[in-house]
Specification:
heterodimer, A: mainly alpha, two-stranded antiparallel ribbon, B: Helix Hairpins, 3 helices, elongated
């Protein structure tokens, strides 16, 4: 298998092509077989990959296999090369496993939609690009996967393309991430310019003995990292490029779960973690990562407090959680960031799938204020969603508790610790518990706020419930892989990823000579604070939406300006519209279109045609139809050629 | 032995007559014969040079020209027949459809 890594990548591609080309005429069962079968096969081949990976001797890791040279130009050379190391194993597991579950769920969720085969073809294509992204052994191949998932994201957001808002949301997502990708591309070119190679192995070997750049002495590494960060910020929906993700909720819910919660949006975090040898030598870039992450975590959480659309709440929650992952990477706790990525993939995919189940049950309603009291009617969805909510809020022993606790701990007491970042993260944690329980209470508790005679609430079919239950189990036990040392376990997860991140951590230690391991008692205190904070968030939600439902309105009225601000999402969309999009459209319409396009480009084309027609009009008079005049021309030509050869050519 | 210049001058005169007939005559048959005259003027030059330089290339070329001329005569006469039938005339001025 290891030499045939391409099989894992090729399986979803085969599924995609088969479904796309032939699926239109197939019965639904055959589409299901092909489009769900291939992701399942991909997961099976992943399992085989893991088995063989663990049998490898340590000096063979990372396993890199180059299949062919993709392009060469001078000393620029890119191979189609795949790589497997510990980080790849973790990411690939998340992608193939969660992806497989969501494909199964989709068979139930999308059953009544038009374009069934098209949906699955695009989902499989997404799996192909995502596995390429994760397994790439150089930045250019990673970029291929990066753009490919962006394309699939665009296609699937605007899946209901006859709906104007969906088509616009797709475009918005594509164009916004393109801004970040500009930085990413420049970063790749700069990395090549500096390292004279683009594959990870050479690049990382080249920086091994390079000392870290100072906070105030920006060098080439800092520049590269900041440019790469721009790409990550676009893809992972961080400030200031997060605006596309809430709109991306126009896509079908399984798409939101797979692409906009579990996998694609975490690609930015993966890339930063993958580039850790570079980032750890660029403290200024690291600080930028941490600040962006922490601010986004709090900022998005505040917006999430005031949304009424169930999927929009989850979208802002995703942005906020991605902020935590960036915060972790920024303070040097890469393994904590990747760990949160994994647990987040479980519980956020679960939350989205549950939301899909709720929407399915309500017959398409997404407004939480038109739900309520669904607890009894859809008990399975309620139970699994409650588990996911507990996990994301950080209830003890659930997955999110361990990962978020680890991040906050590292932000407070790690090598690059910063109290302000920790405070932002903790405030975000409080709001997380608050808005998530607000969602639960509004949706499942209280009295029904919809017309019960018209909406027939029904539990989803088993094919949708099975993935929910599996993900719910993982949302509980997913955190136990990385039991912190003070819980009596060994931190397996961190130990497992140590070959990838260990060197960076040692470097961070060297950069902070006075740093010493914090005592275990501090870890207990931090965990206690995190739990208390989450509990306060829970109590606030409980008070406002269960105990005294009228209090929420009163509070909103009392703080009218703040509520309006949050309800309108800080008017960021409007601001971008006025500052960037408006002038850009004006420029495009009045300069690029009316001057450049009409005047210059059309003018050139039309001018060429005009001149040709004039010349032709003159020349056609030679063709008079008189055969003897043609004959005369032939003679004149022959004489001219003869004279030319006799007198001119010597 | 006749010097080569005689042959070349004869060839040039024949070719010139052919050109004049080709351009100024109106009867298609005459034009056609003028073309044949030009071809044979060239043949004469080939043969003369071939003999002068003792090389066979020119002779070979002459055979080719004769063959092509024969083929051309067959096709050309057929075309002339069709024109004569359609137009009831052999005047080249009447054949003037080939124009803009």
């Amino acid at each position: 298998m290891l030499n045939h890594l391409w099989i894992l990548v090729a399986l979803p591609l085969a599924g995609s092509m088969l479904t796309l080309l032939a699926g239109r005429h197939w019965p639904k069962k055959l589409v299901n077989l092909s489009s769900i079968g291939f992701p399942v096969l991909a997961f099976i081949s992943y399992c085989e990959l893991v088995r063989e990976f663990f049998a490898l001797p340590a000096d063979k890791i990372p396993w890199i296999h180059s299949y062919f040279t993709w392009m060469t130009a001078g000393n620029f050379r890119v191979d189609f090369a795949l790589q497997v190391d510990q980080l790849t194993i973790v990411m690939l597991g998340v992608v193939t496993f969660v992806g497989m579950l969501i494909h199964i769920y989709s068979a139930g969720y999308m059953a009544h939609e038009e374009g069934y085969y098209r949906f699955f073809a695009e989902m499989n294509l997404f799996m192909f690009f995502m596995t390429t992204l994760v397994m790439a052994a150089n930045l250019v191949l990673l970029f291929v996967g990066w753009e490919g998932v962006g394309l699939c994201s665009y296609l699937l957001i605007s899946f209901f393309f006859t709906k104007h808002s969906a088509a616009n949301a797709g475009k918005k997502a594509f164009i916004t991430t393109r801004i970040g990708d500009w930085g990413f591309t420049v970063g790749i070119l700069m990395a090549f310019w500096h390292f004279k190679a683009i594959d990870y192995k050479t690049m990382f070997a080249a920086v091994t003995n390079v000392p870290a750049e100072g906070m105030h002495h920006w060098g080439v590494l800092t520049s590269i990292c900041l440019l790469l960060l721009a790409g990550a910020v676009g893809k992972s929906a961080q400030l200031p490029l997060y605006v596309w993700l809430p709109d991306a909720m126009e896509g079908p819910t399984p798409v939101s779960a797979l692409i906009h919660a579990a996998t694609m949006v975490t690609a930015g975090v993966y890339m930063v973690a993958r580039m850790n040898p570079l980032f750890s030598r660029a403290p200024a870039a690291m600080l930028a990562v941490a600040i962006i992450g922490a601010v986004t975590a709090l900022f998005a959480a505040t917006i999430g407090l005031a949304q009424s659309d169930i999927k929009k709440v989850l979208a802002y929650s995703t942005i906020s959680q991605l902020g935590y992952m960036f915060l972790a990477c920024g303070v040097g706790a890469f393994s904590a960031g990747i760990f949160h990525l994994m647990t987040h993939a479980f519980f956020k995919a679960l939350l989205f799938l549950c939301a899909g189940s709720v929407i399915h049950a309500m017959g398409g309603v997404q407004d939480m204020f038109q739900m309520g009291g669904l607890r009894k009617k859809i008990p399975w969805t309620y139970a699994t969603m409650l588990v996911a909510t507990l996990a994301i809020s950080g209830a003890p022993l659930f997955a999110g508790f361990f990962s978020k606790d680890q991040i906050l701990f590292d932000a407070y007491a790690g090598t690059n610790a910063n109290f302000l970042l920790y405070a932002l993260g903790t405030a975000g944690a409080l709001l997380t518990a608050c808005y998530m329980f607000r969602l639960i209470f509004l949706t499942f508790h209280g009295k029904p706020r919809f017309d019960e005679h018209h909406v027939h609430v029904h539990e989803s079919p088993k094919v949708m419930l099975a993935p929910l239950v599996i993900l719910a189990i993982l949302s509980v036990i997913g955190g136990w892989f990385a039991l912190p040392t003070y819980w009596g376990g060994k931190d397996y997860f961190k130990g497992f990823l140590d070959p990838v991140f260990g060197a960076s951590q040692e470097l961070a230690m060297k950069l902070h000579p006075g740093y010493s391991e914090p005592p275990h008692s501090l870890e207990y205190q931090m965990a206690a604070i995190a739990v208390i904070v989450a509990f306060i968030g829970f109590l606030i939600a409980l008070y406002l939406y269960i105990i005294r439902p009228s209090a929420a309105k009163k509070l909103a009225n009392a703080f009218r300006p703040i509520y309006t601000l949050l309800w309108n999402k800080y008017w960021v969309d409007e601001l971008y519209g006025a500052v960037i999009i408006g002038p850009l459209i004006w420029l495009s319409r009045n300069v690029l279109w009316k001057v450049i396009d009409v005047g210059l480009i059309d003018g050139t084309v039309n001018g060429t045609a005009f001149v040709s027609r004039g010349v032709g009009g003159g020349l056609r008079r030679i063709q008079g139809g008189n055969t003897r005049s043609y004959a005369a021309w032939v003679v004149i030509g022959a004489v001219a050629v003869t004279i030319f050869f006799v007198y001119m050519v010597r | 032995m006749v010097p080569i210049s005689y042959y070349i001058i004869l060839s040039a005169v024949l070719f010139g007559l052919g050109v004049i007939g080709f351009v100024f005559k109106r009867n298609i048959i005459t034009i056609f014969m003028s073309i044949e005259l030009m071809l044979n003027a060239v043949n004469l030059a080939f043969v003369a040079f071939s003999r002068e330089f003792n090389q066979l290339d020119g002779l070979v070329f002459v055979f080719f020209v004769i063959v092509v001329a024969a083929a051309e005569a067959a096709v050309g006469l057929a075309i002339i027949m069709v024109i004569a039938r359609n137009r009831k005339s052999l005047n080249v001025e009447d054949v003037n459809l080939l124009k803009f």
